[in-house]
Design goal:
Number of helices: 3
Low-confidence stretches: none
Order of helices and strands: HHEEH
């Protein structure tokens, strides 16, 4: 996969995320994906390590909570 292909994938992910289209986001992810959001969990409820598409959905849901 070329750098251009990788950039296009990331752009699609951001577009889908910005549109709130979580099914489109989830369709682009693999089970081995990892997102690390640094910070102390007592101050940042979304801080932690998220593995897999379902965990990413949990991360996005946590970000959206007041």
């Amino acid at each position: 996969m070329s750098e251009k292909d990788n950039v296009q994938i990331v752009q699609k992910l951001y577009q889908a995320l910005g549109a709130g289209d979580m099914p489109a986001v989830m369709a682009q992810l693999t089970e081995d994906m990892v997102l690390v959001s640094p910070g102390p969990p007592d101050l940042l409820p979304w801080a932690g390590e998220y593995r897999g598409p379902e965990a990413l959905l949990q991360f996005v849901t946590t970000l959206g909570q007041d």
